[in-house]
Write a structure and sequence with these properties.
Layout (H helix, E strand, L loop, with lengths): L1 H12 L1 H31 L10 E10 L2 E10 L5 E7 L13 H6 L5 E6 L16 H16 L4 E11 L1 H12 L6 E4 L6 H15 L4 H18 L5 H11 L21 H6 L3 H5 L6 E6 L7 H9 L6 E6 L12 H4 L13 H13 L7
Length: 372
């Protein structure tokens, strides 16, 4: 008992206890400093807060294409009448309406008098249907169904409804314009004007080079991808392709290639249907004004080849620009290695000032942003 009292007395008088009490007091002060000023700051902010000139109205919308009901959100300026409108088509990896990639459109376009519709791609989020059973034509028709739904809205000018899409979404926007006269303009961002197998070969090689893999690995990757694509096109052997894929699947880079470990039957393969699509002939059938933008620092698509193919013949309705410093998503702050990391691109969004100015200027010149 005497020992316990002595120990307690020593503990009360110890420097460690005094330091602990002091730290506790500091913690209380810091918590107060964090909490109290927040309330005060909110009160002070009200003294200079002002209502924005353009309030944004948000509405949930549904529309149908065939047997699928798709769900989206419409953003439009509060009180706006007879507006232009943009339907957003998805990248392959960002199928949901609230992806950060699309947020700049929601914030940027309604103040210009342009409504924006984002929706969940079929088979994702709150949209029905199946992606597995789809192809580019069906996905383009989904966007056309959204356009037709907007045409019934008295606040929207049916003559000024178009489609904005990035990457695969850019293909879909251009394709939709060839399938429906209801689409009056197109904005295509970072959509390669090469077939999907060519683009994926380019991307895969970029990934390996950026991550410093040796030339032998690059050659092995190319052989595996080429064998699969040859089989899908009907010029190669499935067993040969599977053997090359089996060997490549042991490599640390394989999972970053978006190449399945099993070579499926070409008769039912979705990849076979995809690689049969060459976007270049589509451009010859796009009659409406189209803005086509690429990033100068895009390791995902062959920009130089795409621009060369577009410019090989005169297409006066197309405006083609390459944005300085921009990557595949029109961002400027990501390293090439980060651009190739799916975990780091999850919340990517456009940053390039030139992209914003080109988009706003083109929409204004086309009188899409005009409010009647």
């Amino acid at each position: 008992m005497h020992f316990e009292k002595t120990q307690a007395r020593q503990l009360r008088n110890s420097p460690l206890r005094k330091i602990g009490v002091a730290l506790w007091a500091v913690a209380i002060v810091l918590m107060a400093a964090v909490t109290t000023p927040t309330i005060a700051q909110e009160a002070i902010a009200q003294q200079w807060a002002a209502a924005p000139t353009t309030g944004i109205l948000t509405e949930t919308k549904t529309f149908r294409n065939g047997n699928a009901t798709l769900s989206g959100t419409l953003y439009l300026p509060r009180g706006g009448q007879v507006l232009g409108a943009v339907v957003v088509t998805h990248t392959a990896s960002k199928p949901l309406r609230d992806a950060p990639l699309y947020r700049h459109l929601i914030e940027m376009l309604p103040p210009l008098g342009i409504a924006v519709l984002t929706y969940d791609r079929r088979g994702s989020g709150q949209s029905g249907g199946s992606l597995r059973d789809s192809d580019y034509l069906l996905l383009a028709d989904d966007a056309i169904a959204a356009v037709r739904m907007l045409k019934t809205d008295s606040r929207i000018d049916p003559e000024r409804i178009g489609i904005w899409g990035l990457s695969q979404g850019g293909w879909l926007s251009l394709l939709a314009a060839t399938r429906s006269s209801d689409v009056r303009f197109v904005v295509s961002i970072a959509a390669p004007i090469v077939a999907p197998d060519v683009q994926m070969m380019f991307r895969s090689e970029s990934y390996l080079r950026i991550n410093d893999y040796p030339e032998a690995d690059i050659a092995q990757m190319r052989a595996a991808r080429q064998a699969v694509d040859d089989y899908m096109r009907g010029t190669g052997d499935r067993a040969v392709a599977q053997a090359l894929v089996d060997a490549a699947a042991t490599k640390p880079w394989f999972d970053q290639l978006y190449l399945g470990k099993t070579v499926g039957d070409r008769a039912t393969s979705r990849w076979r249907r995809e690689i049969e699509y060459d976007p270049l002939p589509t451009l010859d059938h796009v009659r409406v004004p189209a803005l086509i933008l690429f990033g100068a620092n895009d390791p995902v698509v062959p920009v130089a080849t795409s621009v060369t193919r577009i410019n090989a013949r005169s297409r006066p309705n197309l405006t083609v620009r390459v944005v300085a410093g921009a990557d595949h998503h029109m961002a400027t702050s990501m390293s090439p290695r980060a651009q190739m990391d799916p975990n780091q691109t999850e919340r990517v969004r456009p940053e390039a000032p030139e992209y914003f100015s080109l988009l706003a200027g083109w929409l204004t010149n086309q009188e899409i942003s005009r409010v009647k």
